[in-house]
Specification:
Elements: E1 4-8, H1 11-22, E2 27-30, H2 34-38, E3 46-49, H3 55-64, E4 69-73, H4 79-92, E5 96-98, E6 113-115, H5 118-126, E7 131-134, H6 150-153, E8 154-158, H7 162-170, E9 178-180, H8 187-197, E10 199-205, H9 213-223, E11 226-230, H10 241-252, E12 259-264, H11 275-282, E13 286-289, H12 291-295, E14 303-306, H13 310-319, E15 325-330, H14 340-347, E16 352-354, H15 359-366, E17 375-378, H16 386-392, E18 395-400, H17 405-415, E19 422-427, E20 435-439, E21 453-458, H18 486-496, E22 503-507, H19 513-521, E23 526-531, H20 534-547, E24 552-556, E25 571-574, H21 581-591, E26 596-601, H22 604-616, E27 619-627, E28 630-635, E29 638-643, E30 647-654
Parallel strand pairs: 1-2, 1-4, 2-3, 4-5, 6-11, 7-8, 7-10, 8-9, 10-11, 12-15, 12-16, 13-14, 13-15, 17-18, 22-23, 22-25, 23-24, 25-26
Antiparallel strand pairs: 18-21, 19-20, 19-21, 26-30, 27-30, 28-29
Helix pairs in contact: 1-10, 3-4, 8-9, 13-14
């Protein structure tokens, strides 16, 4: 059963036919020429006819097909055909929709040129190169002599009458530049003539169905020749191609079958895009992405949805099945700190991924540095302990996310004693106003950069990070504040089972020896050092500055009250509880039922309190270890072993971890 009749005289008409064919919606496609028929796909869904129909014949066809939806996608110059279609629809009660060509004025350079008169057409052609086939008749011939090189470029086709030939010859049109022939001309003959004369332009008037207009246009398209049309298209009301597809989706309850591509577009400018990425962007009818991304890519006739939230993007695609090719544009490369990960989770693995040039690859080439031994990271929208990475690595690259990011990093480097490092910064990478600078941290104090910039730091005096826990006790500032000793600290931290992105509490932090060791290891995480004594807090601050651990936050107060407003932790070390052991553990479990806990007990009363907690609270994976360490001390010419206080190390995990 025919559900749609399309009168297709334009590219839009062919695209609608192909859209229906892919969705298996039966349709009759009426075209004006055999060439137009050849452009359509062979299909059991589409019935194609190239017979020209009068208005009564259109009525008869519509009644025969049961008055289906009629889409008028004829050329804007085919006013007579459009009027006949309208009348036929009125007489048969068939729904009529006019599909207009989109952005006609913008399409001039690639599809056709429009002129209100021959004189205007000549003015347009004066600024072009290539041969011209003129089919506007002998009466207008003299006007083309205004072209500076008309005797070479212009090929005039006129009627084969002696007086016409004589008149044109007098104007300078002669030899192979004067073609005297009687029409009508088929599309094939027009095309053969354009190829033989190597014409880049074809000039014609809007002459309706009787003047061979459609055959000329089809011939020009088949040869890659640009039509120059004399006259103006009718100012009509109608809908665009994409609106037509949306109407068809609603009418026939069609769901999305879009071909979705995640495209890494490089730094932003077109020149930093790979050819594959450029083709994916150019071929899309819908672009999705952050505003800066889509603005750098959008082309003529493309729709845009400005969004970077994966769930919203997925919903939008489902609600708009009219789009067939969708490009979701992402900065840099899809695999380097990109939104591609979440999009793939939402959209499924049927999505195609096109890689791009990432910011470190581009930037390091611009400053003539290799990057295979560089730490690559980002602080854009995420927490990263950048100063700690710079302290412990020779080369670090990072994406920054704020305009004061470079200045803030410079301040932190100086405060952490890293004023001798070398900084390289990049802004607006790949654009005409790209800016690349280098210098020491002092050179970037107060510097306001582009909101999305990058930095590369070289630290020739970097500190190598030990493979295991065990910073020497002598490395910490202490004063008169108790400190968890090196041997006990090493065992306690190993029992905590930290990850690089863990969120940790050090309760009763003292000097911060455990906090510092944690912060060094969880460089992508956070550490909260909770301490009630003012002297210990001051020592903590000094040790934080000495070791340059920006991911360590000092909380002054008594636990558990001081923990109330903190984010849940994944790991907690309890070095001092002030008699509040049970309340502290209860709050830890409330915040995170799966929390990993290590408790150090010196006094037997503390041990007893901890054991009672193990019995009463939902804890599992319990282990108790006693450490009794001794260190040698020189006495005259001898070494005497001096024992430290024995420590009980209790480790356990919230029972939620096993559920």
């Amino acid at each position: 059963m025919c559900k749609v009749i399309i009168f297709a005289g334009t590219t839009e008409g062919r695209q609608i036919a192909e859209f229906l064919n892919r969705r298996k919606i039966s349709a009759l496609i009426c075209v004006a020429t055999e060439y137009g028929e050849q452009l359509l796909p062979a299909s059991d869904t589409l019935d194609v006819s190239h017979n020209r129909l009068s208005e009564p014949e259109m009525e008869s066809l519509m009644r025969e097909k049961g008055s289906p939806l009629v889409l008028d996608a004829t050329h804007p110059y085919a006013a007579e055909v459009t009027e006949n279609i309208r009348k036929a629809c009125e007489q048969t009660g068939s729904p009529y929709v006019r599909v207009l060509r989109e952005n006609t004025a913008e399409n001039m350079e690639t599809e056709s040129l429009y002129a209100g008169s021959v004189e205007e057409a000549v003015t347009l052609l004066e600024h072009t190169k290539g041969n011209i086939l003129v089919t506007t008749g002998s009466k207008e011939a003299e006007k083309y002599t205004a072209l500076s090189d008309y005797k070479k470029r212009v090929f005039l086709r006129v009627l084969s009458l002696p007086n016409v030939a004589q008149q044109c010859a007098a104007l300078g049109f002669e030899g192979r530049n004067l073609i005297c022939m009687q029409g009508p001309f088929s599309m094939e003959l027009n095309a053969a003539m354009l190829r033989q004369l190597d014409c880049k332009y074809l000039v014609t008037k809007m002459s309706g169905s009787t003047g061979g207009f459609q055959e000329k246009i089809e011939a020009a398209r088949s040869c890659g020749c640009i039509p120059v049309m004399i006259g103006r298209p009718l100012k009509e009301e109608g809908i665009s191609l994409i609106q037509c597809k949306r109407l068809l989706c609603e009418r026939f309850s069609l769901s999305s079958q879009a071909e979705i591509t995640l495209v890494g577009i490089g730094m932003g400018s077109e020149k930093s895009r790979t050819r594959e990425a450029a083709e994916a962007v150019r071929g899309a009818d819908l672009l999705i992405g952050a505003r800066r991304m889509v603005q750098s890519c959008v082309g003529r006739g493309q729709d845009v949805y400005v969004e970077y939230d994966s769930e919203k993007i997925g919903n939008y695609i489902r609600l708009h099945p009219e789009y067939e090719k969708i490009a979701i544009v992402l900065s840099g490369d899809t695999g380097f700190y990109s939104g591609a990960r979440k999009l793939l989770q939402v959209l499924g693995n049927q999505v195609k991924v096109v890689c791009g040039i990432s910011s470190p690859v581009y930037f390091m080439s611009r400053i003539q540095k290799t990057w295979d031994d560089t730490i690559l990271t980002s602080v854009h929208g995420k927490h990263t302990e950048l100063v700690g990475l710079i302290r412990r690595h020779e080369k670090v690259f990072s994406i920054l996310g704020t305009s004061d990011g470079i200045a803030e990093l410079a301040e932190k480097l100086i405060a952490s004693g890293l004023k001798n490092v070398r900084m390289y910064t990049g802004e607006r990478l790949s654009y005409e106003d790209e800016k690349i600078r280098q210098g020491g941290p002092e050179d970037f104090l107060g510097y306001e950069a582009d909101s999305l910039s990058v930095v590369y730091v070289e630290n020739s005096d970097y500190e190598k990070l030990p493979v295991t826990h065990g910073i020497s006790d002598s490395a910490f500032l202490r004063d008169k504040v108790p400190m968890t000793k090196e041997e006990v600290r090493t065992v306690s931290l190993s029992k905590l089972r930290l990850y690089e992105d863990s969120v940790c509490y050090d309760i009763g932090a003292g000097t911060g020896s455990v906090s510092i060791e944690m912060a060094v290891r969880v460089f992508s995480g956070k550490v909260y050092a909770i301490e009630k004594k003012p002297l210990a807090v001051e020592v903590l601050k000094k040790n934080k500055a000495k070791f340059g651990v920006g991911n360590l936050k000092i909380i002054e107060g008594m636990a558990p009250e001081a923990m109330e407003d903190l984010e849940p932790c994944t790991h907690a070390f309890i070095g001092g509880s002030s008699g509040n052991m049970k309340e502290i553990i209860r709050l830890l479990l409330k915040k995170n039922p799966c929390v990993r806990i290590v408790i150090n007990c010196i006094a037997l009363e503390t041990l007893s309190e901890a054991l009672q907690c193990l019995k009463e609270l939902p804890l599992t994976d319990t282990e108790i270890v006693q450490i009794a360490a001794s260190k040698a001390k020189s006495v005259a010419s001898y070494h005497m072993m001096m024992g430290e206080n024995p420590i009980y190390i209790i480790s356990c995990t919230g029972i939620g971890a096993s559920e």
